[in-house]
Specification:
- The complex is a heterodimer.
- The mean pLDDT of chain A is about 95.
- Helix content of chain A is about 30%, strand content about 25%.
- By secondary structure, chain A is an alpha+beta fold.
- In chain B, a hairpin with a 5-residue loop joins strand 8 and strand 9 (about 180).
- Residues about 475-485 of chain B have low confidence and may be disordered.
- A seven-stranded antiparallel beta sheet of chain B has the order 15-12-14-13-17-18-16, with helices on both faces. In chain B, strands 5-6-10-8-9 form a five-stranded antiparallel beta sheet.
- Chain B is α+β, with helices and mostly antiparallel strands.
- In chain B, helix 9 runs antiparallel to helix 14 (about 350-365).
- The chains are: A alpha+beta, B alpha+beta.
- Chains A and B meet through strand 7, helix 6, strand 9, helix 7 and helix 8 of A and strand 9, helix 8, helix 9, helix 11 and helix 17 of B.
């Protein structure tokens, strides 16, 4: 447990004075996510650890950014609570700061919310080396602009997230997983129909003709949903392994060596849940898909051109992320409109006037 | 009227139908304040565009003239966020009031900003869906205003605030550019500008379209009414319920002065001897609700509730809630005026704050009743005063500021859901230091470099904070009373 805030401030002031480009990182477990950063110095947050405050009755945990996800989850589990947004655990040493800066959410995203929905406040060190405090430790807070949300998912381009307060939730009393044999289109339709009914859905995943549904909540609610929805009930330990493998992306779909070796890119398409099927004739490789979030998140291995993938995603009302940029095929994220890009640039100028934080990681030139 | 004002009105008249532009005093007077009636200003004009192109044209005209624009939804805001500026115009979104689409399968509604909050749920009702955030003004307030304020309500603990239920906002920037924040999917590329837009109090862009999530209507809801003979016990009971792993759909508290005032008004059957009453609601399927109500009752009993009643019918549930929902009008019945505060604190400090407020009541010589969202620590002390007495109003304002400062000192915030607006702009000096306020100005300028959209709200200038600090020293003796203070 150590508070390295002053050390970070000194490093940032020093770098700002020398206009030295910094790569702010936690453990580096998500280094591959986003564009490559060309930096002159590393600033690791890993030693900045410790829970600052955690009172289960407040449903709020405040911790330093270098604290590992594993330690945070262990502390929560001790009190029967959890991180509702189920961030991927790529490595045991993954940090809270990295979780917040990448804002990657797990299988429960459409049902319980994503990282952004649970961030209540944070301390940020800006490009001048000033420690700024936004939001707070309470659920409802509308004093000033929501800068904490702006920082969430910013990939460290605006500042060093040094301390975060997050809303946590009790672990559901009961959980069950159901299995159905359904086509892609039918699976998406069914999940969305169920989502419109008072059923305790907390995750869905479809791959190769099989749909899995997770139910969690009050015991009575889960039992009644099993009865209504039918489907094959999975054994509990097996189901946990399955959902963990999706959450942590250790599921065989994500580790397909054939596809990794054949110059294919793993795309993450974020789409309106009921967007039509990305039929194989529209995108190469679209036959091998994993669909989560009731249709809202579609994973796809493809060697199609990046602009073709982005065009399809855009046309369907969403966007595409070049998730595993192993072949260096260009920008990771879709470009916002010119007007939004201008806002991005001015925000960067406000928080990081010397442009020293994680240059290029979100967008080239930012 | 100055020649400059006349030229502006002429320019606006070219882009708006004549019925959609008000500039005679008798027409603009209804817009001189919002729900915070103590602060009033007459604008140069009021523009009521009825489509996005007109919004754009109005902003272009004002941008060209360098005239500030104050956006306004239904005008129900409680913090003066829509208070006009004397040298600016008001842009009302009231005529942009169409529900553009409801998709029952994907559970989304696309709305113009002037659609009333309750109208969304009414339109979704045939599909057994509804829009969750339910600010108490939901019958009148509009979704555009909800986006501006990040409105909450009594069900936030379980269902979230506006920011958790809006997925896309289309808006016009001050320079006339049309932008979209968020997408029809669950996220968008780049920085989370949607998150910043929500709760920005009309200072970043003018909303022209909103996509919200709809969720399934719980088939059953039941509420427990629990009485406590001690405020501290009631405060702890709130923490005990949450610590037991329960997330009530609503968890509200009222103190004795509040229950007495409302009981006279609506006869909700409240226990008048109780020092505090908790309303704890569960919703969901019948089996789920039964399980939760039983667990909640056990916890509350264990925490020292002296009386527990569970609603046995929808009619009884509405009766239990009627008191809570009528607390504000009840306050209006026993006092000529009341001043509603909105600080939020960690739940463990509820009793501490209530005791501090009691002490302040004696010091300021004013009564205060407390009704609040206990589950999320969002306090609504209602300070009772007589506005015709100048001194009482000044004491009420000081009392309110002291409560908000106490909230900040307890680790909370000056506003949980009503917004800063003009009302709490001084207490922002207490919650944020100069560098943080500078960052807010930077965010503002990133969206609105000309600083013409609602520019006098939310973020206090350094000068203003210095002055607020001085006023504290000489409470009640405002220096330079003739200076404009915005």
């Amino acid at each position: 447990m150590a508070d390295l805030t002053n050390d970070f401030v000194a490093q940032i002031r020093d770098a700002a004075a020398a206009k030295c480009l910094l790569n702010i990182e936690g453990s580096g477990s998500k280094r591959w996510y986003g564009n490559q950063v060309v930096a002159q110095r590393q600033l690791a947050t890993t030693g900045h650890t410790g829970i600052v405050e955690y009172d289960p009755a407040e449903l709020v945990l405040t911790a330093r950014a270098g604290m590992t996800l594993a330690d945070i989850e262990a502390a929560l589990a001790e009190r029967g609570q959890m991180l509702p947004f189920e961030p991927p655990r790529y490595a045991p040493e993954s940090t809270l700061g990295g979780v917040i800066a990448t804002a990657l959410s797990g299988p429960g995203r459409p049902f319980v919310g994503g990282v952004r929905d649970f961030v209540l406040g944070m301390h940020v060190i800006d490009g001048k080396g000033d420690v700024l405090k936004f939001g707070g430790q309470v659920m409802k807070n509308v004093a000033g602009y929501d800068v904490s949300r702006l920082m969430t998912g910013s990939l460290g381009i605006l500042g060093l997230i040094s301390q975060v307060s997050i809303k946590v939730l009790p672990v559901p009393v009961a959980t069950a997983t159901l299995r159905f044999e359904l086509s892609e289109a039918e699976a998406i339709r069914r999940v969305n129909e169920w989502s419109g009914k008072p059923l305790p859905l907390t995750a869905s995943a479809w791959e190769a003709g099989i749909l899995h549904i997770r139910l969690s909540g009050a015991r009575a609610a889960v039992d009644s949903a099993i009865h209504q929805m039918r489907g094959v009930v999975l054994d509990v330990p097996g189901a946990k392994i399955f959902w963990d493998s999706l959450r942590d992306q250790t599921h065989p779909f994500f580790c397909d060596t054939h596809e990794m070796n054949t110059n294919q890119t793993l795309w993450r398409l974020s789409l309106p849940a009921i967007a039509p099927s990305i039929a194989a004739n529209r995108l190469q490789g679209a036959t091998h898909q994993l669909i989560e979030w009731g249709g809202g998140q579609r994973w796809l291995w493809s060697d199609a051109r990046g602009d073709a993938v982005r065009a399809v995603a855009h046309e369907l009302g969403g966007h595409a992320v070049r998730f595993n940029n192993q072949h260096g095929g260009g920008e990771t994220f879709a470009q916002p409109s010119a007007a939004l890009m201008a806002i991005h640039r001015r925000l960067k100028q406000t928080f990081d006037p010397q442009g020293i934080f994680n240059p290029g990681r979100l967008y080239q030139g930012l | 009227m100055s020649a400059q004002h006349q030229r502006l009105i002429a320019a606006l008249a070219q882009v708006l139908p004549s019925a959609n532009l008000l500039w005679q005093k008798e027409d603009t007077a209804p817009y001189e304040c919002d729900g915070l009636a103590a602060y009033r200003t007459l604008p140069i004009a009021v523009a009521l565009p009825e489509n996005e192109a007109q919004v754009q044209a109005v902003l272009n005209a004002c941008n060209a003239f360098g005239v500030p624009v104050v956006p306004r939804g239904a005008g129900t805001g409680l913090s003066g966020g829509a208070m006009p500026m004397a040298e600016g115009i008001v842009l009302s979104t009231a005529k942009l009031n169409k529900i553009l689409d409801i998709d029952s399968l994907s559970r989304r509604a696309v709305l113009q900003p002037g659609v009333r909050n309750l109208a969304i749920s009414d339109a979704a009702a045939p599909y057994d869906l509804y829009y969750a955030p339910d600010p108490s003004s939901q019958i009148a307030c509009s979704i555009g205003g909800n986006v501006a304020e990040n409105s909450g309500g009594v069900h936030c603990l379980k269902y979230g605030l506006t920011v958790n239920n809006v997925i896309r906002v289309r808006a016009v920037l001050m320079d006339g550019e049309i932008v979209e924040f968020g997408t029809e999917a669950l996220d968008a590329p780049g920085l989370d500008l949607l998150g910043v837009m929500i709760g920005s109090e009309g200072m970043l862009a003018v909303v022209t379209e909103v996509t919200v999530r709809l969720i399934p209507k719980p088939p059953v809801a039941r509420v427990i009414m629990a009485s406590f003979d001690d405020m501290t016990k009631a405060g702890h009971a709130v923490a005990d319920v949450i610590a037991a792993g329960l997330i009530p759909a609503g968890l509200e508290m009222m103190d004795k002065p509040a229950t007495r005032a409302v009981e006279e008004f609506v006869q909700a059957g409240y226990d008048l001897n109780a020092e505090a009453i908790l309303l704890c609601e569960s919703d969901g399927t019948p089996e789920e609700v039964e399980e939760e109500i039983s667990r909640m009752s056990d916890v509350l009993r264990h925490s020292g509730a002296i009386r527990i009643q569970v609603s046995e019918s929808e009619a009884e549930r509405m009766k239990f809630w009627s008191g809570r929902k009528n607390a504000f009008p009840a306050a209006g019945r026993i006092s000529p005026d009341y001043y509603c505060m909105d600080g939020t604190i960690p739940k463990k400090h509820i009793a501490t704050l209530l005791n501090q407020i009691k002490e302040m009541e004696a010091r300021y010589g004013l009564r205060c009743m407390n009704v609040f969202h206990a589950g999320d620590g969002n306090m609504h002390p209602l300070i009772l005063f007589d506005g015709s007495d100048e001194d009482q109003w000044r004491r009420a304002e000081d009392f309110g500021n002291e409560i908000l400062e106490a909230c900040v000192a307890l680790g909370g915030t000056v506003t949980g859901e009503h917004g800063v607006g003009i009302e709490k702009i001084n207490t922002m000096c207490v919650q944020f230091d100069e560098k943080e306020r500078d960052a807010f100005f930077g965010v503002k300028a990133a969206f609105d470099p000309a600083r013409l959209l609602n520019p006098d709200k939310v973020i206090p200038t350094l000068h203003r904070c210095a002055e607020y600090g001085r006023m504290h020293v000489h409470r009640g003796q405002m220096p330079h009373a003739d200076l404009p203070r915005f």
